[in-house]
Amino acid sequence: MGTTNTLHPAAASGFAQQADAYARGRPDYPQAVLPWLGEQLGLQPAWQVLDLGAGTGKFSRYLLDSGAQVTALEPVAAMRAKLVSLPGLRVLDGTAEAIPLPDASLDAVFAATAFHWFATPAALAEIERVLRPGGWLVLLFNVRDESVDWVAAMSAIMQPYEGDTPRYRKGDWRKVFPAPGFSALQQVDFPYLHRGAPEQVIVDRVLSVSFIAALPDPERAKVHAALTELIATHPALAGQAEIALPYRTELYCCQRR
Protein backbone atom coordinates (compact mmCIF):
# COMPACT_ATOMS: atom_id res chain seq x y z
CA MET A 1 0.00 0.00 0.00
CA GLY A 2 3.02 2.28 0.03
CA THR A 3 3.35 5.07 2.51
CA THR A 4 0.16 6.34 4.15
CA ASN A 5 -0.23 9.25 1.73
CA THR A 6 0.08 6.95 -1.29
CA LEU A 7 -2.71 4.57 -0.37
CA HIS A 8 -5.01 4.01 -3.33
CA PRO A 9 -8.07 6.26 -2.78
CA ALA A 10 -10.40 3.25 -2.92
CA ALA A 11 -8.51 1.64 -0.04
CA ALA A 12 -8.07 4.79 2.03
CA SER A 13 -11.73 5.79 1.73
CA GLY A 14 -13.57 2.52 1.19
CA PHE A 15 -11.97 0.47 3.94
CA ALA A 16 -12.30 3.33 6.40
CA GLN A 17 -16.04 3.59 5.70
CA GLN A 18 -16.91 -0.10 5.58
CA ALA A 19 -14.74 -1.80 8.21
CA ASP A 20 -17.85 -3.31 9.84
CA ALA A 21 -19.12 -4.75 6.55
CA TYR A 22 -15.62 -6.08 5.90
CA ALA A 23 -15.58 -7.89 9.24
CA ARG A 24 -19.04 -9.37 8.63
CA GLY A 25 -18.89 -10.17 4.94
CA ARG A 26 -15.36 -11.28 4.13
CA PRO A 27 -14.76 -15.03 4.16
CA ASP A 28 -12.38 -16.65 6.59
CA TYR A 29 -9.72 -19.13 5.46
CA PRO A 30 -9.82 -22.94 5.30
CA GLN A 31 -8.88 -24.77 8.48
CA ALA A 32 -6.49 -26.91 6.42
CA VAL A 33 -4.20 -23.92 5.81
CA LEU A 34 -2.73 -23.87 9.32
CA PRO A 35 -1.62 -27.54 9.43
CA TRP A 36 -0.16 -27.12 5.94
CA LEU A 37 1.90 -24.15 7.09
CA GLY A 38 3.20 -26.19 10.01
CA GLU A 39 4.03 -29.28 7.98
CA GLN A 40 5.41 -27.64 4.84
CA LEU A 41 6.97 -24.40 6.07
CA GLY A 42 7.64 -25.26 9.70
CA LEU A 43 5.36 -22.63 11.30
CA GLN A 44 5.67 -23.06 15.07
CA PRO A 45 5.17 -21.13 18.34
CA ALA A 46 8.78 -19.91 18.36
CA TRP A 47 8.30 -18.00 15.10
CA GLN A 48 7.99 -14.24 14.78
CA VAL A 49 5.49 -13.53 11.99
CA LEU A 50 3.89 -10.49 10.37
CA ASP A 51 0.37 -10.21 8.97
CA LEU A 52 0.91 -7.47 6.37
CA GLY A 53 -2.16 -5.44 5.44
CA ALA A 54 -4.02 -7.31 8.16
CA GLY A 55 -7.40 -5.60 7.68
CA THR A 56 -9.77 -6.60 10.48
CA GLY A 57 -7.68 -9.63 11.43
CA LYS A 58 -9.35 -12.42 9.47
CA PHE A 59 -6.00 -14.18 8.99
CA SER A 60 -4.34 -12.84 12.14
CA ARG A 61 -6.70 -15.07 14.13
CA TYR A 62 -5.37 -18.14 12.33
CA LEU A 63 -1.79 -17.16 12.99
CA LEU A 64 -2.51 -16.62 16.67
CA ASP A 65 -3.96 -20.14 16.83
CA SER A 66 -0.57 -21.48 15.70
CA GLY A 67 1.01 -20.09 18.86
CA ALA A 68 3.42 -17.95 16.83
CA GLN A 69 4.27 -14.43 17.96
CA VAL A 70 2.09 -12.35 15.62
CA THR A 71 2.39 -8.70 14.62
CA ALA A 72 -0.33 -7.14 12.45
CA LEU A 73 0.51 -4.16 10.26
CA GLU A 74 -2.41 -2.12 8.91
CA PRO A 75 -2.44 1.48 7.57
CA VAL A 76 -6.22 2.13 7.82
CA ALA A 77 -7.20 3.32 11.30
CA ALA A 78 -10.75 1.92 11.13
CA MET A 79 -9.32 -1.52 10.39
CA ARG A 80 -6.75 -1.27 13.18
CA ALA A 81 -9.57 -0.52 15.58
CA LYS A 82 -10.89 -4.04 14.88
CA LEU A 83 -7.46 -5.62 15.34
CA VAL A 84 -6.81 -4.34 18.86
CA SER A 85 -9.54 -6.60 20.25
CA LEU A 86 -7.55 -9.76 19.42
CA PRO A 87 -5.70 -10.98 22.56
CA GLY A 88 -1.98 -11.46 22.09
CA LEU A 89 -1.81 -9.58 18.78
CA ARG A 90 0.72 -6.76 18.43
CA VAL A 91 -0.82 -4.08 16.20
CA LEU A 92 1.22 -1.50 14.28
CA ASP A 93 0.43 1.35 11.93
CA GLY A 94 2.51 1.08 8.80
CA THR A 95 2.74 0.03 5.19
CA ALA A 96 4.47 -2.58 3.07
CA GLU A 97 7.11 -0.13 1.86
CA ALA A 98 7.91 1.13 5.37
CA ILE A 99 7.64 -1.77 7.84
CA PRO A 100 8.55 -0.51 11.34
CA LEU A 101 10.49 -3.66 12.33
CA PRO A 102 14.22 -4.46 12.48
CA ASP A 103 16.25 -6.19 9.77
CA ALA A 104 16.04 -10.00 9.68
CA SER A 105 13.58 -10.04 12.59
CA LEU A 106 10.83 -12.23 11.10
CA ASP A 107 10.46 -15.90 10.26
CA ALA A 108 7.53 -15.27 7.91
CA VAL A 109 5.53 -12.45 6.35
CA PHE A 110 1.91 -13.19 5.41
CA ALA A 111 -0.34 -11.12 3.15
CA ALA A 112 -3.89 -12.47 3.13
CA THR A 113 -6.09 -10.99 0.39
CA ALA A 114 -3.85 -7.93 0.49
CA PHE A 115 -0.74 -8.29 -1.68
CA HIS A 116 -2.38 -6.83 -4.81
CA TRP A 117 -2.44 -3.46 -2.99
CA PHE A 118 1.33 -3.27 -2.59
CA ALA A 119 2.82 -5.52 -5.29
CA THR A 120 5.85 -3.32 -5.99
CA PRO A 121 9.59 -3.95 -6.08
CA ALA A 122 9.98 -1.49 -3.20
CA ALA A 123 7.56 -3.46 -1.01
CA LEU A 124 9.29 -6.74 -1.83
CA ALA A 125 12.66 -5.21 -0.96
CA GLU A 126 11.25 -4.12 2.39
CA ILE A 127 9.78 -7.58 3.01
CA GLU A 128 13.17 -9.10 2.18
CA ARG A 129 14.81 -6.71 4.66
CA VAL A 130 12.65 -7.79 7.63
CA LEU A 131 12.82 -11.53 6.85
CA ARG A 132 15.64 -13.64 8.19
CA PRO A 133 17.54 -15.69 5.58
CA GLY A 134 15.35 -18.69 4.83
CA GLY A 135 12.24 -16.87 6.03
CA TRP A 136 8.99 -17.20 4.10
CA LEU A 137 6.72 -14.81 2.21
CA VAL A 138 3.21 -16.27 2.03
CA LEU A 139 0.40 -14.78 -0.06
CA LEU A 140 -3.22 -15.92 0.21
CA PHE A 141 -6.18 -15.01 -1.98
CA ASN A 142 -9.80 -16.10 -1.61
CA VAL A 143 -11.05 -16.49 -5.18
CA ARG A 144 -14.78 -16.79 -5.86
CA ASP A 145 -15.90 -19.73 -8.01
CA GLU A 146 -17.54 -17.88 -10.89
CA SER A 147 -18.49 -21.12 -12.65
CA VAL A 148 -21.53 -20.88 -10.35
CA ASP A 149 -23.97 -18.62 -12.15
CA TRP A 150 -25.15 -16.55 -9.19
CA VAL A 151 -21.55 -15.97 -8.10
CA ALA A 152 -20.76 -14.73 -11.61
CA ALA A 153 -23.82 -12.46 -11.43
CA MET A 154 -22.60 -11.06 -8.10
CA SER A 155 -19.22 -10.25 -9.65
CA ALA A 156 -20.89 -8.66 -12.69
CA ILE A 157 -22.71 -6.22 -10.42
CA MET A 158 -19.36 -5.02 -9.03
CA GLN A 159 -17.23 -4.95 -12.14
CA PRO A 160 -18.43 -1.69 -13.76
CA TYR A 161 -17.16 0.24 -10.73
CA GLU A 162 -13.64 -1.15 -10.33
CA GLY A 163 -11.79 1.41 -12.49
CA ASP A 164 -8.06 1.34 -11.82
CA THR A 165 -8.38 -0.30 -8.41
CA PRO A 166 -5.73 -3.01 -7.87
CA ARG A 167 -7.43 -6.41 -7.79
CA TYR A 168 -6.27 -10.00 -7.60
CA ARG A 169 -8.30 -10.90 -10.67
CA LYS A 170 -6.41 -8.41 -12.87
CA GLY A 171 -3.19 -10.34 -12.25
CA ASP A 172 -0.91 -7.29 -12.05
CA TRP A 173 0.46 -8.50 -8.71
CA ARG A 174 2.21 -11.37 -10.51
CA LYS A 175 4.47 -9.01 -12.47
CA VAL A 176 6.86 -8.55 -9.55
CA PHE A 177 7.76 -12.26 -9.61
CA PRO A 178 10.26 -13.80 -9.88
CA ALA A 179 11.58 -11.38 -7.28
CA PRO A 180 15.24 -10.62 -6.49
CA GLY A 181 16.30 -12.27 -3.25
CA PHE A 182 13.47 -14.81 -3.25
CA SER A 183 13.00 -18.36 -4.49
CA ALA A 184 10.37 -19.16 -7.12
CA LEU A 185 6.72 -18.96 -6.07
CA GLN A 186 5.07 -22.24 -5.14
CA GLN A 187 1.27 -22.59 -5.23
CA VAL A 188 -1.22 -24.80 -3.42
CA ASP A 189 -5.04 -24.47 -3.47
CA PHE A 190 -7.64 -25.18 -0.80
CA PRO A 191 -11.42 -25.35 -1.31
CA TYR A 192 -13.55 -23.23 0.99
CA LEU A 193 -17.28 -22.56 1.47
CA HIS A 194 -18.34 -19.29 3.07
CA ARG A 195 -21.63 -20.11 4.81
CA GLY A 196 -24.05 -17.59 6.20
CA ALA A 197 -27.14 -15.51 5.54
CA PRO A 198 -27.32 -14.03 2.00
CA GLU A 199 -27.16 -10.54 3.47
CA GLN A 200 -23.78 -11.41 4.99
CA VAL A 201 -22.25 -13.64 2.34
CA ILE A 202 -23.34 -11.54 -0.65
CA VAL A 203 -24.41 -8.04 0.42
CA ASP A 204 -21.82 -7.36 3.12
CA ARG A 205 -19.15 -9.04 0.99
CA VAL A 206 -19.77 -6.74 -1.97
CA LEU A 207 -20.31 -3.58 0.08
CA SER A 208 -16.93 -4.21 1.74
CA VAL A 209 -15.10 -4.15 -1.60
CA SER A 210 -12.94 -1.03 -1.57
CA PHE A 211 -14.23 0.64 -4.72
CA ILE A 212 -17.88 -0.13 -3.85
CA ALA A 213 -17.46 1.16 -0.30
CA ALA A 214 -15.94 4.38 -1.67
CA LEU A 215 -18.91 5.11 -3.98
CA PRO A 216 -21.23 8.06 -3.29
CA ASP A 217 -24.27 6.98 -1.30
CA PRO A 218 -26.71 6.96 -4.27
CA GLU A 219 -24.43 4.73 -6.36
CA ARG A 220 -23.78 2.38 -3.45
CA ALA A 221 -27.54 2.18 -2.92
CA LYS A 222 -27.93 1.03 -6.54
CA VAL A 223 -25.43 -1.75 -5.95
CA HIS A 224 -27.25 -2.75 -2.77
CA ALA A 225 -30.56 -2.86 -4.65
CA ALA A 226 -29.09 -5.00 -7.45
CA LEU A 227 -27.73 -7.48 -4.91
CA THR A 228 -31.05 -7.60 -3.08
CA GLU A 229 -32.81 -8.31 -6.37
CA LEU A 230 -30.36 -11.10 -7.18
CA ILE A 231 -31.01 -12.74 -3.81
CA ALA A 232 -34.78 -12.38 -4.16
CA THR A 233 -35.04 -13.71 -7.71
CA HIS A 234 -32.32 -16.33 -8.25
CA PRO A 235 -33.69 -19.86 -7.70
CA ALA A 236 -30.66 -20.95 -5.69
CA LEU A 237 -30.92 -17.96 -3.34
CA ALA A 238 -34.58 -16.94 -3.00
CA GLY A 239 -36.01 -17.73 0.42
CA GLN A 240 -32.79 -19.28 1.70
CA ALA A 241 -31.85 -18.49 5.31
CA GLU A 242 -28.31 -19.73 4.68
CA ILE A 243 -26.22 -20.08 1.53
CA ALA A 244 -22.70 -21.27 0.78
CA LEU A 245 -20.48 -19.18 -1.49
CA PRO A 246 -17.76 -21.38 -3.00
CA TYR A 247 -14.19 -20.11 -2.94
CA ARG A 248 -10.79 -21.44 -3.86
CA THR A 249 -8.12 -20.23 -1.47
CA GLU A 250 -4.88 -19.88 -3.43
CA LEU A 251 -1.71 -19.91 -1.32
CA TYR A 252 1.60 -18.79 -2.83
CA CYS A 253 4.91 -18.96 -0.98
CA CYS A 254 8.56 -18.21 -1.61
CA GLN A 255 11.63 -18.15 0.58
CA ARG A 256 14.17 -15.42 1.22
CA ARG A 257 17.47 -16.65 -0.16
Automatic annotation (TrEMBL):
Any one Pfam family match given in the protein's UniProt record, by short name? Methyltransf_11
Q: Which UniProt keywords apply?
A: Methyltransferase, Transferase
Q: Which GO terms describe its biological process?
A: methylation
Gene Ontology MF term list: S-adenosylmethionine-dependent methyltransferase activity
Q: Which InterPro entries match?
A: Diverse_substrate_MTase, Methyltransf_11, SAM-dependent_MTases_sf
Q: Which residues cross the membrane?
A: none
Keyword presence, Transferase: yes
Keyword Cell membrane belongs to the record = no
Entry protein name: Methyltransferase domain-containing protein
Query: What is the originating organism of this protein?
Result: Chitinimonas taiwanensis DSM 18899
